[in-house]
């Protein structure tokens, strides 16, 4: 029986060996939000931000980040993602942008980290583009919402 661990026989960090794991269809969805001033969200929603389309830039940044997760998170496997969807929904009533990301693949390991990374970088991109208007923005509640596939099956928050 293969024991999946991030530690080798000497107790040193290593990438988990997934060679013997079966390939299965896997999906993960993560979410988070960026809370901001009424002024900042109005500029975004009305398309009046001086730096351009904030949501389009954040969407692309999230997709790119998911593709590069193994370069950002130590010991993450490089994955051939087959789908990455990043959604950004303005919530004017609460002065925030709600972010969600769903990543899919057929492979030997899950895509939770890729979905979480996509949400995080999309949020950071919004912050970067809007910080001149509102430095007090808060990126928060980044969390896994659901994952399916693999040995552990389905998990939902």
From TrEMBL:
GO molecular function, one term: cyclic pyranopterin monophosphate synthase activity
Binding site for substrate: 75-77, 113-114
Keywords: Lyase, Molybdenum cofactor biosynthesis
GO BP: any one term: Mo-molybdopterin cofactor biosynthetic process
Protein EC: 4.6.1.17
SUPFAM superfamilies with a match to the protein in the record: Molybdenum cofactor biosynthesis protein C, MoaC (SSF55040)
Reactions this protein catalyses: (8S)-3',8-cyclo-7,8-dihydroguanosine 5'-triphosphate = cyclic pyranopterin phosphate + diphosphate
Family: Belongs to the MoaC family.
PANTHER family xrefs: CYCLIC PYRANOPTERIN MONOPHOSPHATE SYNTHASE, MOLYBDOPTERIN COFACTOR SYNTHESIS PROTEIN A
Protein's recorded name: Cyclic pyranopterin monophosphate synthase
Source organism of the structure: Aliikangiella marina
Taxonomic lineage: Bacteria, Pseudomonadati, Pseudomonadota, Gammaproteobacteria, Oceanospirillales
Name of the gene this protein is made from: moaC
